[in-house]
Fold:
Amino acid sequence: MMIFEKARENAEAIKQGGARAIEEAKLVGVPAYYLDPSLGEGIIKELPDGTRQRIKLIDGEDVVVESIGPKA
Structure:
């Protein structure tokens, strides 16, 4: 239970760390993969140009389920 309490206490720092990781991935030209409940269920793949896609992994390959557009 303690780990969940710590995560709640540090939620903003965790969120900022994730945002920095996405920006760093863009800077080096690789996609970032993450979960974002505000966008629904599933894996989000964000490309260096800001394009976002909901994907499924099938046999180790990315399969685009839905294009959800860039961040506003």
Summary: Residues 2-67 form one domain. The mean pLDDT is 88. The radius of gyration is 14 Å. The helical segments are 2-9, 11-28.
